[in-house]
Amino acid sequence: MNSKQCPTCGSTNIYQESATVYRCGDCFDKLPTGLMVDSPPTKVYGSSKQNPSADSFKKWKNLITGIMVTWLVLGSYFFNHYQNLKSTLNTTVKEETVSIPLDANLESVEIIPEGEFQYTAAIPDVIGNVYVVGKFTNRSGQSLLMPKFTVTLFNEEKVNLKTSYGYAEKNVVNEGESVSFQVLIEEAPSYNHFDIQVTATTIPKETDKPELTLKKLDLKRNQYKEIIIVGKIQNNSNHITNFTRVTCLLINKEEKTIDYATVSLAKEDFLPKEIQNFEMIFLRAKQIPNSYYCETDAITKENAKP
Questions:
Q1: Are residues 127 and 175 in the same domain?
Q2: The domain that contains 270 carries what CATH number?
Q3: Domain stop point among 165, 192, 207
Q4: How many structural domains are present in the chain?
Q5: Which pLDDT does position 29 carry in this prediction?
Q6: Largest CA distance in the chain
Q7: Where are the alpha helices (H) located in the chain, listed in sequence order?
Q8: This prediction's pTM
Q9: 306 is in which domain, residue-wise?
Q10: Which of 55, 78, 248, 298 has its CA 20 to 30 A from that of 191?
Q11: Residue 11 dihedral angles phi and psi, to the nearest 5°
Q12: Euclidean distance between CA atoms 256 and 123, whole angstroms
């Protein structure tokens, strides 16, 4: 063997590690000192005697691993993006195709119902608004759903100054039944007169409503000199009612409304045959009115046994 070759691997890449120690640059084994005839050259790292195929395989392995990781990351991103996009498209399609089923047997139409107006008046407040208040009796021959009252203010030349609308105090008004209404006109301009029109959707047949009775109504003043109405209300129906309320109009001798108020019962469930007291305060009226008109309304509680 050549004295300058490593006895382990045969490499000639020998370098002097110290004054008495020689080492192979490829396998890093320590060489016997006696085998060295000439001093080997100082080690040059990265010698051409290293295995080039191993380095090349390692580089390709690292490159392939990096590519695979990159594809995994990009694949996960695009998959999540696709799922989100698909979910959004499905939601949009569902929203666009949702339809509200209609009962073909209802045969409801919007009409201008015949009827009678009473106690109609415009009541101003202290901040420039006007409340047009009154009573309407249904003479259309049909039950009405959500009667809508539209009020238009005119000047002397019959020019339309402002229009506003409001709804009846009852959701359903049967044939021959009366209902009060109020329409708020905000920042009402100076006007000469007003006009009222009523529209409503018809109901094919008369609706059963809770039978409520007002008793022992008394109009008087309280200790603060305010005009009040006190009385009792009885549930004569066989069902529990909710949202039970009383509405009253104060009427002067000219048959005009001078004030109005609404009160709801504090107790949520109004039981059959039960009687409750109520009190209603009127803040606008200064004098005892000539008369008053009061009505009641409620909703029958569903899934309730009497």
A1: yes
A2: 2.60.40.10
A3: 207
A4: 2
A5: 72
A6: 141
A7: 52-97
A8: 0.62
A9: 209-306
A10: 248
A11: -75, 145
A12: 10
pLDDT classification of 26: cutoffs 50, 70, 90: confident
Residues 220 and 166 in one domain: no
In contact, 227 and 282? CB cutoff 8 Å: yes
From start to end of the chain, where are the E strands?
Answer: 14-16, 22-24, 30-31, 110-111, 115-124, 130-138, 143-154, 160-167, 172-173, 178-185, 193-203, 212-221, 227-235, 241-251, 257-264, 275-282, 291-300
Q: Quick check: helix, strand or coil at residue 202?
A: strand
Which residue matches tokens 């109504």? 217
Final residue belonging to a domain, choices 207, 238, 272: 207
- Residue linked to tokens 């008087």: 220
Contact partners, residue 212, CB within 8 Å, separation at least 6: 233, 234, 235, 236, 237, 241, 244, 296, 297, 298
Mean predicted lDDT score pLDDT of the chain: 80
In angstroms, the CA 263 to CA 295 distance is 11
Residue that the structure tokens 């609404």 belong to: 262
Q: Are 97 and 221 in contact (CB under 8 A)?
A: no
Polymer length in residues for the chain: 306
Q: Is residue 203 part of a domain?
A: yes
User: CA-CA distance, 232 to 228, in Å (whole number)?
Assistant: 14
